[in-house]
Request: fold
Amino acid sequence: MQLDPNITFDTLEGALRVQYARVNAQQWHQVCAQVAASDGRLVALWGADRTQSGSGYSVHAALATPEDFICISLALSGAAYPDIAELFPAANRMQRAIRDLLGLVASGATDQRKWLRHTAWRESEFPLRKADVVQAAQRQGDANNVFESTDAYPFVQVSGDGVHEIPVGPVHAGTIEPGHFRFSVVGERVLRLEQRLGYKHKGIEKRFEQMDMIQGARLAARVSGDSAVAFGWAYAMAVESAAGVMPPPRALWLRALLLERERIANHLGDLGFLGNDAGLAFGLSQFLILKEDVLRLNDALFGHRYLMDVIVPGGVARYFPDAGVTRVREEAECIEQTVLRLKHIYDEHAGLQDRFMECGCVTPALAARLGLIGQAGRASGQAWDARVTHPCAPYRELVVNVAGHTAGDVAARVAVRFAEIVESIRLLRLIVDRMPLGDISAPVPVPAAGRLGIGWIEGWRGDVFVALETGNDGRIARLHPRDPSWHNWPVLEHAILGNIVPDFPLINKSFNLSYAGQDL
Reply:
């Protein structure tokens, strides 16, 4: 994309090359419109409070085209900024979250409903404002700052003969995090689904502001526990970019090894549960055996089943033992053979395919319009994969084969998972064969205050993004982690339309989105 010559873009060097600019309100909308017109997409949207330093509030957008990664910042004179949800529908919930957390409003947005505000905060409280921490004691005796008395969320009402609502959640029968789903149905056919998330706001973004760069790595790995490697790498990349450090080559290859192992483990679990949701309990047992084997080898080689705290700023925290090469190769052979046999069973099982095919369809055109990303996006004809479009080391050398499909149904999302497992096994073999020798970490100097670092990694669910602003004494002034579920949850509302209510668990699992990643 040809960047606007009237806007001064600086290049932020690092593992990811970022074009960064401070813009005015007109340029904010102009750049976003230009990216949208260039087949680009919104990666993340977040706000920041610098009132204690005298510079007020600001909003930031990360944008990607097939060629460029762009970050723009808009300093606000008040509390309003231009709406971009008409360009990028995924911006809707991000803008509503910014309003709940900072009190900044997307001017002209058609949907101004609260998103994260349930009944936990006072009516005038905005958790990411600096003043809300400073003045906490003052609020205790302020009668005007009472807690919101009711949640009264304004769900869209659907009316007509035979239309009725089915509320599901936020408390579920399974051991999962809370989320409310409001179905409007006729008979069993779904006319509309509306989600309500954010029931367990953890305060992660505010917690980062109380940490230094090293402490922040542990929290980043726990933003969404099934993506510890992806968030850990994105966080480390952001710190390294701000500090001007590049990890040793061996550390980068080890990170890729960890990332592909995380992808394999999660896809194995999903394939098992998808079989189970369609009535094939055999598939669940077989795939969970394979996943358990992967997790046990993770623990044996790296000290943690889910690989938490292995990636640190500057590199990785644990050596890869010599015996690990043989064990990874043996495991890869076993998984590949078993997965291919199970794929044949899934493909030839008439009952399974009857449930999978033409269920929960998202057409390529709808996926492109709504910004569907990750493995779900690739099942609907979207070719976005940061390992290919914006590869960092060592993916430039590995050359990833992107799995894709165009049917956009549950069957397509299952097929993409099978293909990605096989491809990740191929990558594991290449990584252990080509991994360079040498150090596994490099010193990370304390970055100067006011530096911006960006991390962007293709996790198993989709691309994971971290934006870091440095403060004084090596501490974090602002950190925004963005899970791909922010983009994909709204698309699930469309995928269920026209399907029957009993198919929702299957469709939902075929996306397998993160509640925790949405509820920071």
About this structure: The chain has a mean pLDDT of 93.
